[in-house]
Every structure is written in C-alpha cells, then in structure tokens.
Design goal:
The protein has 490 residues and is of the alpha/beta class. Helix content is 37%, strand content 22%. It is built from 16 helices and 22 strands.
Length: 490
C-alpha cells in the first residue's frame, strides 16, 4: 500500500508520521527537543539536535511501515526560528535563535522610531516584533563579525527550520523555503511574492544568504536515502499553516487554533486589507496560486502552564491539572502569561507576566487553574480580533497538545460562546504536511479530494450563562490592562 511520510519539527518535539490515502496514521515517532535560555529573554536550540532528531524519527516511522511504498515526504516546522549555517561546510554557525527569543527588541524599537512600521506592515502583513526573523538576522550579523564576513563572501545560509531540514535531506543540493515560511520572515513582500529589496536593505540582510522560495507542494527531488529508501521531497508548510490544511480548511469562514508552546489562530481571507492591527496577514500556502490568511500569534500558552507548574512545585502535570479543574471556581485569580511580552492582538513586548487577585487563601491549585484559563482567554482575544477583521465566526477548530484536555475545550467554548471542534488527529501539523506532499506527488489529485478524508472532530458547545461569561472576561481584561500599564512604567 502506498503512503506519505511527514516530518513535523516543532519547538518541543520532532515528530514523524506515515499516512495512507484515507489520512489514517500508520506509524508515528517522536523525540523531545531541549530549549536553552542563556540570558534573560534569549531562547536558543541546537540545529544539530533538530537534524539528528529528524533522522531518527523518520527512520523509526519507516521501520514501522516497512511494508508500505512511501511515495513522498513533506515537512512542517516551527516557523520564525532562525538557523545560520556555512554554505561550504554545512555546519551551523550559531545556536538557532528560537521564535520566542526577544534579543532583537532594541532593533525593533529603532525601526519603529524611524517611522517604518506601517510601511513594513503594508508589505509583509506583519507587526514589527522580535518574533520575526528579520531583526534576528540583523542582530546576528551585527554581533557576530565572523558570520558577517562569511555573509559578505556569499558563504552563509540564513533560513528557517524547514530550509535547514531540506538542505540536509536533499544532500545539500537544495536551499529553499516555501511561501508560507517566507511570509513569516518580515523580509518577504506578500503582495508581490518576492523578497523585498527595501526590507533587505533596512535590516542589512544579503539576498544571497536567503533561500529560493518555492511552492508549498513543489517537487524538490529525492531525499538522501532514508532507511535504504529513495523518497521524493515534495511539500513544505509552516506548522500553523499545516494545521489549517490538516483541519481541511480550504475556504473562508472557519478559524483554527493550535494549542502548543504558544498558540496560533488562522483563518483564510482574500487579499488581506484589514485595518485590524492586532492581527498579521500572511500566506497560508501556495499550490496553484497564493492563498492569503489572517493570523494571530500568542507567544505563551502551553509554556505558561509549564511555568506555573514549576512555580508551584507541581511535578505531575496530569494530577495538578485535575486538582485545578475540580475547583468550584477560579477564586478570582488571573494569570497573564506575558513572560516574553504580549503577542496578538496586543503586541506589547515590554509587558511582563503577572498573577493578580491573590489573597491569603490562594493555593497552588488556583495558580494552575489561572494558567489553564489564560490559554482560553488569550485565544478569545485573537478570535474577537478576527471577527472584527472579517465576519462572524461560528466555530473554532482546535488542535495541539493542550486541546486534548476536555475541561479546557469546554471552557474555551463557554468563554467564546461558540462551539469548539477538536480534531481527533493528534499530529495535525504532520497531517497537513502530508497533504501538501501528497498534492505535490499526485498521491491526492486535488484539494477537494483532501476534504473527503479529513479526520472527524469532537464537539464542545457553550453552556455558560452570559452574565458569568461577561464577568470572567471583564476581570481578565482588567488583568491584561494592569500588565500593559506595568510595561509602560519601564
């Protein structure tokens, strides 16, 4: 039986799945990644570790599915993380600067002070923020003279994680990225579909160091032999875009939320022209043509819960969450997890996290409960911004690790006053990458065929009374305002 192999290189894990023509997962493998915090606000990972984990999970999946004919390999990836490597030797030149890293905040502030933010937003659809690779590249070239020298000699590759993986998987023959990942660099003109020379000059980025931009389902040649097999590389998507495709969203009116380390909401649109500044405009993918989308990126969701568990000394996630969700109420305790600033729709990099509403009878379980609720409140903030940018959205499609928690999904439905449909496929970004690869190699003939094999969903419907909902949201908004006021005082 024929199958598609998909590699999903996330922030905390690298995964691989093997998928048949009905989108059934035939095999799966996962390896965790470590994250380093060398200074306050800095977040790094090892490029070698990402590549090593990728090889291992691919080999494991192929070993499990040895009886299947694997006809294509697709990739989904954590997006705004920057990888720099030597074009001649293929060796990384520095640790990966992870998407959460804030080291380039001063560069972003300088760009704003030049009055460039609106021009950049018009070209790229993105707010000026350290999240995006443009300022990360400028920081790297300014602070590493050795890398700057190599870049001037045309010997540096600067790319996102997908480019690093394709480079290695292709035996260093292809240095490419797809339209979805390129649109997240803040160097790509999403209207023209090309690297923007004015932005390259602004951030001091040599175009020779950037990858070729290809379609999201483009055939890229055979990968290096994997477990003795020759498999065509034929699909790349950023992980949030891949999750959208994995849900089968191919028309406007639906929004998906991925619950991960951070969270991303995305909904399709025509050529983006919204004045809603809390959202980004992006390219969902390019198959036959460019498909645009609105997106809201929340910096801290699942990682905020991890932080709260560490703060309270809770070692067992499952039992801590169980105790927190069995409380009669949240005790009026709210956690705003601005641990690396606030992302969409607030975009306040100076904001810092806070737990508000504490009293003498506040226990650890209330802090964990507040961290869980904060995930849903932040999703609501972006969901509301998307409705202002487009039209009423009746359903939230959910995926990602935290979405497995039934209590959180019900609270999300209650706080949105909308139904939430949770995908029954855990590896949704991987599935989206498989769909892109399958379209590239003819495994699926069209996007219409994909919609017929999308996995089913679990549905959660709102039951909370309106007065109670309004009270919870009002107090959450007050907590966010307090955090943003603190940022102004810095």
């Amino acid at each position: 039986m024929k199958a598609i192999l998909a590699l999903d290189a996330g922030t905390t894990n690298v995964k691989a799945i093997l998928v048949d023509q009905q989108a059934n997962v035939l095999a799966r493998s996962s390896i965790p990644l470590s994250i380093d915090y060398p200074q306050s606000g800095w977040v790094e990972q090892s490029a070698e570790a990402i590549w090593d984990a990728a090889q291992k999970v691919l080999a494991s999946c192929l070993a499990q599915g040895v009886e299947h004919e694997v006809v294509g390999l697709g990739i989904s990836n954590q997006r705004e993380t920057l990888v720099a490597w030597n074009r001649d030797t293929g060796e990384p030149l520095a640790p990966c600067i992870v998407w959460q890293c804030r080291r380039s905040a001063a560069i972003c502030q300088a760009v704003r002070e030049k009055g460039m933010e609106e021009s950049i937003r018009a070209k790229t659809g993105l707010q000026v923020d350290p999240l995006f690779p443009a300022s990360k590249i400028q920081w790297l070239l300014e602070n590493r003279p050795d890398i700057r020298k190599l870049a001037d000699q045309g010997k540096v590759c600067l790319g996102t994680v997908d480019a690093w993986l394709v480079w290695n998987l292709s035996g260093r023959r292809r240095f490419v990225t797809d339209f979805s990942n390129a649109s997240r660099t803040q160097l790509f003109n999403i209207g023209r579909g090309t690297w923007d020379r004015e932005l390259l000059e602004l951030f001091g980025v040599p175009e020779s160091a950037l990858p070729e931009v290809v379609a999201s389902n483009q055939l890229l040649g055979d990968a290096i032999p994997l477990a003795g097999r020759s498999i065509p590389l034929c699909g790349i998507l950023g992980d949030s875009h891949a999750a959208l495709l994995g849900h089968g969203v191919l028309e406007k009116g639906k929004v998906k939320a991925t619950y991960g380390t951070g969270s991303s909401l995305m909904t399709l649109c025509d050529r983006p022209e919204s004045s809603e500044k809390g959202l980004s405009s992006t390219i969902a993918w390019k198959f036959d043509q460019i498909q645009y989308a609105y997106e809201g990126n929340i910096t801290v969701t699942g990682s905020g819960l991890t932080w709260a568990l560490a703060l309270t000394g809770s070692r067992d996630l499952e039992s801590a969450v169980k105790r927190a969700t069995e409380l009669d109420s949240n005790g009026n305790v709210y956690f705003v997890p601005a641990l690396a600033g606030l992302g969409a729709p607030h975009w306040d990099e100076k904001a810092r996290g806070a737990v508000v509403g504490l009293s003498f009878d506040t226990g650890n379980d209330y802090v964990v409960r507040a961290a869980l609720e904060a995930i849903a409140f932040q999703i609501k903030d972006v969901f509301d911004a998307m409705q202002r940018a487009s039209a009423r959205l009746d359903t939230l499609l959910a995926d990602g690790g935290a979405s497995k928690n039934d209590w959180l999904m019900q609270f999300q439905a209650d706080i949105l006053d909308r139904q939430v449909q949770r995908s029954q496929t855990v590896e949704l970004s991987g599935l989206g990458a498989a769909f892109a690869a399958g379209l590239g190699c003819g495994f699926w003939s069209s996007t219409a065929e994909i919609t017929k094999v999308v996995a089913s969903h679990d549905t959660f419907r709102p039951v909370l009374e309106q007065d109670k909902r309004n009270q919870l949201v009002k107090r959450w908004n007050a907590a966010v305002s307090a955090v943003k006021t603190y940022g102004l005082a810095q």
